[in-house]
Every structure is written in C-alpha cells, then in structure tokens.
Amino acid sequence: MRIRSILSLAAAAATVVALGACGSDNSGSTSTSSGTAAGTSAATTGGGGGASGKIALLLPESKTARYESQDRPLFEAKMKQLCPNCEIVYSNADQDASKQQSQAEAAITEGVKVMVLDPVDSASAAAIVNRAKQSKIPVVSYDRLITGAPVDYYISFDNVKVGKLQGDALVKKLKQDGNAKGPIIKINGAPTDNNAKLFKQGSNDVFSQAGVDISKQYDTPDWSPDKAQSEMEQAITAVGKDKIKGVYAANDGTAGGAIAAMKSAGMDPTKIPTTGQDAELAAIQRILAGQQYMTVYKAIKPEAETAAQLAFDLLQGKQPSGDVVNGQTDNGSGQVPSVLLQPVAVTKDNVTDTVVKDGFWTADQICTGAYKQACAAAGIS
C-alpha cells in the first residue's frame, strides 16, 4: 500500500513540472513535456483513473548538478507513469528569485492545476504561494522549505540531521588524524536557502559540543562553487595553509570550490578532510581518490517520485495516505504536513553499499579515466 501511495504521489508531481515551464518567457530554461506530442495541450483522458491536467515544476538553479541530472528527469518519468496524458510545465530559475516569480506567474496564466516549487529564496517565494492560492492552486514545497506562506505539503530530508551527519563525520576524522580541535574552515550554503540555515544549525551544534575551532566561516551566495573557491582562498590567506586541519563544505559544489583553492595554494586535499552533500558524481570520484572525505547521500529518486505522487493526488482532489506524510514542519505560517526522508553519510568505505547499490551512479559512470584504479581499490567494477 505504501509503495502504491508513493507511486501515485510521484505521478502528480510530474504533472506539476510540465505546467511550471509552459508559460515562461525564458526559453533557455523552460520546457513542456507530456504523454502526447510535444507542444500539445493537456489531454482530457489518460492513465491515473482518467486524470489529466497541467502541473508546474519550478526548480531553483542548475549550479547544483542534481536538479537537472536527477530531480527533473525522475519527477517527469514518474509523472508520465502515473498520468500519461498529464502535461508537465518545467522551469529552472537559474538562481534568480525574480525570474522564478515570473515563471510562476506564467505557469498560473497557463492554467496549471498544481505547483511543485523548489524556491530560490525561501522567504520571497511566499509571494508565489499566495498568488497560487488566489487561483486555488495547491503548492508542494519541494526540497527547500518555503517560509511564511500556507503551502499544502513539504517534502525534503531531515536537514538538521544532514548538518549533524556532516559535522559528526568531520569530527570523527579530525580525531583520527590527531586534530580533534581543528581548526577548520566552514563554508555554508546560500543565506537565502532555508535548508542552508538548517545544515548550518546541525553542524554548528556538533562542532560546538566537540569544541572544534572554526577559524573562518562564510555563507556562500547562490551555492556557487566559484564563490566557495574565493572564500577558501581568503581563509587560506587569513589562517595560513599549514594551520587548516579540515573544511566543512555544505554541499559537493562548494566542496569542489574549496578543494580547488587548496590545490592552487599548494595544499594536499587528501590530508585535509572536506565534507559535502548530494553525492554528485564528481564528489564520489573525489572521495574514492581521497580528495574529499565524505558527502551526504539523499535518495533523490524517492523524493522526486513522492513529490510526483503528492502532485497527482492533489490534481485529483485526494489526500495522500497517512503512511506517506510522516511529520509536520513549522514554516512560520503554520504546521505543514511533511514527508521527511532520511539522509546517509557516505565515505570511501560505503560508496558501494549506497550510491552504487541503489543505482544512483553506476560503476561505468564513476570509474572513468583517472578513477579506475581508485574504483578497483574500493571494489567497484
């Protein structure tokens, strides 16, 4: 019953995706897909008990690789399975809150029936929700929590726990290396992203309890790897390259920027443990090569598919089953029914048992060129 419920939710979400992109003025970051010919309006009949309609999927940016490589295709595939004749309108805001506002307005004008929204800015996205509510369009807050507005559902991971996993892993490694108190450099995520605040909260709690010295700490605009690299360069100059014992990076993109800065400064990243998040392909390769210590694997497939099911249920005017919604989250406007999934810390020791076992990345994708030897040493073939 739980599996069927999740599948239904996934289908709904995919429909939302199609609607969101339909009316955008930014052709470079929008598209429309459906079970019928491209460009055809929403079908009147189809799978999912005859349901049909337009569903908007609005994603925030593409600098974080997962959105285009994982979230979007997984959501669309699940929605097509649940509702072959539903239309998905997709938009990516390219980290521009104003652009996302325009994309949402276009989707509403296009006639979407459900909106799945991953906000660029958690607070300013409240205006999008309020506008959708005026048109009686339910909104699913996807991955990042929208604050200050009455969203219908929220689906994400336990993001304080993500920060704690990162912090715990780094503290453990620092102790193993004989550097229990650091010092470390802390490169947090975008200040406009509510999830980044939660990652920061969880990791700071761990570092405070462990007595780890945070020499420099930055909030990274737009989650930009380039800006993370610049922040790390500033930290190296201020602290000294021989004194830094570890780096907290909030995601794999910022980790990549920090590692690039270390290499440019003549530092050996294999001796300076660096955290990450999202299990990006480049990060898994760096972990196997010893250049990044860990990442946090968030099973994006169930997240995207469950979002699709939520959207599909909302399209049909149904409530999701109680075993799918497993919590509530205070977003400043009220308690939002929530689906909170569990993240997993990944190091070199469990790459095989996590991202490879789940098919998130295949051995062929990971074990290319310079990484073949590292894969063989880790037993990945």
UniProtKB/TrEMBL annotation:
InterPro entries: Bact_Solute-Bind_Prot2 (IPR050555), Peripla_BP_I (IPR028082), SBP_2_dom (IPR025997). Residues 1-20 form the signal peptide. It is found in: Cell envelope. GO terms for cellular component: outer membrane-bounded periplasmic space. One of its GO terms (molecular function) is carbohydrate binding. Residues 25-49 are annotated as: Disordered. It comes from the Bacteria. Residues 25-44 have a biased composition (Low complexity). Its main location: other. SUPFAM superfamilies: Periplasmic binding protein-like I. This is D-xylose-binding periplasmic protein. It comes from Capillimicrobium parvum. The lineage of its organism: Bacteria, Bacillati, Actinomycetota, Thermoleophilia, Solirubrobacterales. The gene is xylF.
